[in-house]
Structure formats: structure tokens, C-alpha cells
Amino acid sequence: MEKKPVTHFIAGIIIAAVMIVYSLVLMLMDLSTNQAAGFVSYVILLAGVIYFVLQYAKAMDNTLTFGNLFSYGFKSTAIATLILLAFQVIFFVAFPEYKDKITEMSRENMIKQGQLSEEQIDQAMAMMQRFFWVGLIGGTVFFCLIIGAIASLIGAGLAKKNPQTPFQNPL
Fold this sequence. Notes:
mainly alpha
């Protein structure tokens, strides 16, 4: 029976689905403002990409190079990032109260730190409201792609590699 590898497209969809389900669980449990719980989604991305790179190498009988495996992992990351980004945009448009919740949490954190005056906090909140979408999209793309690149490097480095040269393949 021939092993059929999971394509990078399917791997990206699976990783994004797991991250989205995790995000929804956090929101249902009212933990969406917990930063530590939010970092777990990046761990999901990291572990998912490494897992799929290793499975892809195994399905291809470990005949791929480091570059092939890295490419597979990064393409999977790109697909997952696009899906996650689309989910976040749709979510924040459909439920704008979560945007207000994040803004209020930021205000409380600034007040707790005690380093800014009330006027400075108001200015920071106005700036945050103005650049919310830029920060959301830019932050999601930047962090997901950086973590995905690291995961692709780790996965490609851990996978067994026994690439074949053109001279090894009989015609």
C-alpha cells in the first residue's frame, strides 16, 4: 500500500482549524483576554507545523532535502495564517464587543502600571482604536509567519533525510 502524503494545503487547513477551535473555546470560557492562554495558540501552530513536516518526510520515504521540507512547512504556515486572519476579521466584524473588551483590558493594564497620566492613557486608547485593524492583521501575519518559519526549520532539521541523486533513479 502506497503512502499518500498530506498536502501543505490540507495541513494548513487542519492547523488553522485547531487554532480557531482553541480560540473559540477561550472566548466561550471568557479567557480571551488571558495572555498566557493566548500564547498556547502559537504553540499549537509550532507543534502542528513540526508534526506535518515530519509526517510529510515519512510519507515521502525520507527522500526529500532540507529545503523541500522547509518549503512544505512554510507553505502550510502561510495557508494556516490566511485562514486564521480571515477568521479574526470576520469574528471582530461580527462581534465588535470583543474589540472593546481588549481595549478595556489594555486601559486597565496601563492604569495598573501607573507610569502614564490619565490624558496619556486616553491618547493611547484613541491610537489603539484607530490602528486596531492594522495591529490585528500585522501582528497575526508577523507572529504566525515567524513562528511557522521556526517550526519549519525545526521540522526540516529533525526529519530523516536520504535524498536521491538523479544518478540513483534508473530510467
